[in-house]
Amino acid sequence: MVEVSGMANVSPMGGINPGVSQNLCEVISNKKIGAYHHITLAAPAIAEHAKPGNFVAISVGDVRSSMLLRRSFAIYQTVPRGPFGGTLEIIVAPHGPGSTWISERQPHEKLDVVGPLGNAFKIPKDPVRALLVGGGYGSAPLFSLAETLRQKNSRVEMAIGASTADRIFAPVEGKRSVHSLMIATEDGSLGSKGRVTDLFDNSLSSIDIVYACGPMAMLKALTEIGAKTGVLVQCAVEESMACGVGLCMTCVLPVRDNDGTIKMLRSCIEGPIFDGVAVQWDGIGTIPPGTYGAHR
Amino acid sequence: MSEFDFATTLAQAKFPNPIFTASGCAANGRELSAFFPLNEIGAVVTKSVMSQPRSGRATPRMAETPSGMLNAIGLQGPGIEPFLKEDLPWLLDNGARTVVSIAGESVEEFSSLARKVRSAPGVSAIEVNISCPNVENRGLVFACDRSSAREVIEAVKRSVGNTIPIIAKLSPDVTDIVSIAEEVVQAGADGLAMINTLLGMVIDTETMRPKLANKTGGLSGPAIRPVAVRAIYQVHRALPNVPIVGMGGVITGNDAFELVLAGASAISVGTASFHDPSAPVRIKRELEELLVARGFQKFSEAVGFAHRGDA
Q1: Which of A5, B114, B141, B215 counts the highest number of beta carbons within 10 A?
Q2: Other Cβ atoms within 10 Å of B2 Cβ, number
Q3: Does any CB of chain B come closer than 8 Å to the CB of residue A263?
Q4: Mean pLDDT to the nearest integer, A143-155
Q5: What is the pLDDT at residue A85?
């Protein structure tokens, strides 16, 4: 198993990301890419501190909004310095009224953004052969991770899967940061027909580490493939969150910690990145037997 | 502006301003401290703590609702011992005036929790959460039954005496909140916190099943504010000398002002912190500006002001 360095921006207490700040951010651009919106925001404080895997939490509407809960988005990429100062880019999939409202914001409008939040992908100290797997817009945070890995002379393969071609997020500039890119769609409209996990045929023969972001079922399948071959699989989970900053305790999932105890951990603070083997995938939506503090 | 006296008191406890967090909406303070210094608000009310560590309930634990949210967390927390060893000292070291909220499944658990909190130095008050709606059995919502509510508060009072103020947290899901308030005050409560969430339910029309794993959950947010205003108004009218920590959908200083006019001596900011983690300090600033603009020289003059002239 490869040696990975700790996450410098996460305190050992599992506290909130120390780089976090709340900012009113101007929308610089909003481009439609397939089924998604690629939104660029002026966010110098967030751009300065963000690491691959971190996310932001954005409020819907103003103080009088009837939708109170923040929506969380993985950071696609940040540019610390540019014509607009530091910028932050996210990929928004409009599916409910809140994400639809955010996806409709136009240049010069402002969004209330809290970030960076959560932990970051662990980066191996030495060059590795890495496989990055994204489900739908779950590929968004993987491109900046690919850049970071390549700077460490790692070989980066990427695989992206979605139901249809318009749900594959693979921008041209992102493709340049990977050595190879495989695509799978369930309807066969782009790449090979089937699920992204089918691409590996249950083997990860030339891979040292897997990074994955997407639906829970995909993360679980990759964890199982990784476990068979002893490959570390780092999973960025998607749990619904009310606040994103560790207050509400709604985004928990059962995770086995270092001393072997299953705990209900917040994906916004202790995650969103977890070692796949630690997550009790089959126990999500339950309190697995033996969980710390389970009601007797 | 500088002459305005924003201080408030709850029994013998004094606070430089009346804006508190709400239990269960601020965790134990660390996360919010990334957004503002905790000593800027009146007090941090910690998440209701039980005797033992608690995993809480299965997910999904929440659903967004019109101008509100439904939650069924199930009191996830570390238990009283780690809380007193780690969380409470951290809060006090960071200058936070702290109201410790306790929750139990039996009278004995409340009593033993209160004894442990009493022996920890530096706590401003104890909130006795007898109204968490997310318990196994509605019969365990002590605040829904006069004699159960009385038993808990009497036991807590026996545990702490007059060393520290006791604030009983009440449920609006009762026929007559005034009679419950009178009962707990007779039993020894020094103040009242109201309102806890209302029991609600959301059914997902895609899956055609209840949205929460727990099926029901507590409704909070601006949707419940008129219920809070009514409950505070009724109880302040009946018990004008009993301090009330008011809460229920306060998002702006104007909302806080409404609860103060109804009779609240302090205001807890809950669900608003999920929407805006800076909400407690923003609401504090907005409320102060509003009170000054209305010509009040002291915060205490505004408490219950809507009752003036009533027969």
Answers
A1: B114
A2: 3
A3: yes
A4: 95
A5: 87
Contact B249, B225 (CB under 8 A): yes
- CA nearest to B26 within chain A: A247
Question: Contact at 8 Å (CB) between B287 and B253?
Answer: yes
Contact state of A252 with B56 under an 8 Å Cβ cutoff: yes
CB within 8 Å: B275 and A250: no
* B210-B215-B219 Cα angle (round to 5): 100
Domains with residue ranges and CATH for chain A: 21-117 (2.40.30.10), 129-283 (3.40.50.80)
Single-letter code of the amino acid located at B132: C
Contact assignment for A295 to B213 by CB distance below 8 Å: no
pLDDT tops 60 at residue A213: yes
The verdict on A69 touching B (C-beta cutoff 8 Å) is yes
Which two structure tokens, joined as six digits, stand for A174?
A: 């992102």
Q: How many CB pairs under 8 A join A and B?
A: 123
Whether B144 sits among the annotated catalytic residues: the reply is: no
Phi then psi dihedrals of residue A209, to 5 deg: -150, 145
pLDDT at site A6: 44
Q: What is the ipTM of this complex?
A: 0.94
CATH code of domain B8-56+75-199+222-306 = 3.20.20.70
Identify the residue among B21, B31, B206 best suited for mutation to test binding to A, counting A beta carbons within 10 A and taking the highest. B31
Catalytic residue, chosen from B10, B88, B117, B132, is: B132
Scan for tokens 């899967």, then name that residue: A161
Where does the pLDDT of residue A11 fall: very low under 50, low under 70, confident under 90, or very high at 90 and above?
very low
Q: What is the value of pTM for the model shown? A: 0.95
pLDDT of residue A173: 81
CA distance A156 to A182: 12
Interface membership of A216 toward B (CB under 8 Å): no
pLDDT tens-digit readout, A265-291: 999 999 999 999 999 999 999 999 999
> Do the beta carbons of residue B153 and residue B166 sit within 8 Å?
yes
pLDDT at position A200 is: 83
Q: What is the pLDDT of residue A296?
A: 61
Tell me the domain boundaries of chain B.
8-56+75-199+222-306
d(CA B287, CA B299) in angstroms, rounded, equals: 10
B36-61 residue pLDDT tens:
999 999 999 999 999 999 999 999 99
Q: Provide the CB-side half-sphere exposure for B52 (13 A, CA).
A: 11
The owner of tokens 């240049």 is A107
The answer to whether the beta carbons of residues A273 and A235 sit under 8 Å apart is yes
Q: Are A283 and A255 in contact, with CB atoms under 8 Å apart?
A: no
